[in-house]
Amino acid sequence: MEAELSQAYAQLWADLPAIFSLGLVAVAGLVMITWDVFDNNSPVIPWLGAAAMGTGIVWEALALVGDPGAAGTAMLGLVRTGGFASFINIVILASGMLSIILSVPYLRRIEHDYGEVYCLIMYCTAGMIFLGTANHLVSIFVGLETMSICLYILTGLVREDEGAVESALKYFLLGAFSTGFFLYGMALLYGATGTMALPEMAAGLAQPAAPGMIGSELLFWAGVALLLIGFMFKVSAAPFHMWTPDVYQGAPTTLTGYMSTASKASAFGSLILILVYALPPEHWPAVLAFVAIVTMVIGNVLAISQANVKRMLAYSSVAHGGYVLVGLTAGTTAGYAGALYYLLVYALMNIGAFGVMAFLEWDGKEGREQTLQSLAGIGTRKPLLGVTMGFFMFSLIGFPTLGGFIGKYAVFAPAVQAGYTWLVIIAVLMSAVSAFYYLRVLYVFWFMDESEAEDGARKASFPVPFAPAAVLVVCALLLVVLGVLPFLLGTTSAFFPDAGAAMQAAGGAGP
To answer: How many domains does the chain contain in total?
Structure first.
């Protein structure tokens, strides 16, 4: 270890190309906050952040095109690079970049267009990248807390609104509680295996326990249970989803879109790495199947009764976390690849849906109190918002020729192949249930008369600047492309060439 630490700085310079996106986002955040000191709330600041994230996307995309199966580690093995890591980074960076573009006019309209907000998004994104590519339990914790602290602040951005403050407080308290489970799980895993490096845990578990000590296997699975509780909180899986509706409803809408996509992608990315490289394939598939069922049922059933669109989308987010868990339950390369593909599609759908709602707010409280019915006939008044919302709603249902359909196929098919047909049947039934509340949005937008809308909605102009309009159109077009030409699904399958070997070393049959 001393020899490794003595070479840390030399290794850091050698690793810079591998962690270019992470370094770029972190340095850009530092430049932005320094810029804000000398030119407070400069309009250049958000675009600097968006440009940095766009550059990171190009860098990671070039790495994927060069060799999709390339994989390695950096920073003394703390993070993974290439292949899987590049894909997760693209999803996180794209979510951040699109959210910043949507946020510029939105935050200006609600008079909270502060330079510090975009700096927080940058450092939150850096934490997400660190979490989503973590190869070590310490890396997971550092990334998780960096992301969470920034999200707590962003949730309570509108301090004048009691709903936003309440949401931030709930998020902070429950988040701190879940962190306790996570840390205790880390401690037990270290006690059971003698290491915190994910690829070394299976070998550590195989070592016999010292005389008079509690069996390492008991400690290990207790640590896994506590660790999974922490992850289930971050991905809004039931029954750890209680914070999600209130937080999504109270936070500024464009930041809610960022929160619901980038944080979910990073947490699921980290969970996939743990499942592939650290956990023996025993017991946990059954646990994930149970959590997936509860999550899908609770998310979809409770979404039906919601009158507020943001709250409905919050429960929808819970349900979609359940769909991803269906793919992970398979425990195969195809299941992991499908989950990654679904995370990309989900990011486009949700950023687009929350983006539309951000520009349909008229209640002066970030859409927290306005109902869906109050927007009756808005599709004819604002056809761009109405049409793009149609793409997002149909894709969330899983309508053929859109990305949501291929995404659900990508997570359901591996589960069927792994023998979880009964689980997929439940998932398909829940998708059918979701059609009711998604199509209800389009019914109100297009088939209800404008005279039935609230006075405040009828009087609002709902301006949509060019940049946000372009984001909504791009998200809708990408959903069509990914639904018709799902070429990236084959790419994600190349990210786990060593998954079988890793699982066999852990004591399983491998995918």
So the answer is: 1
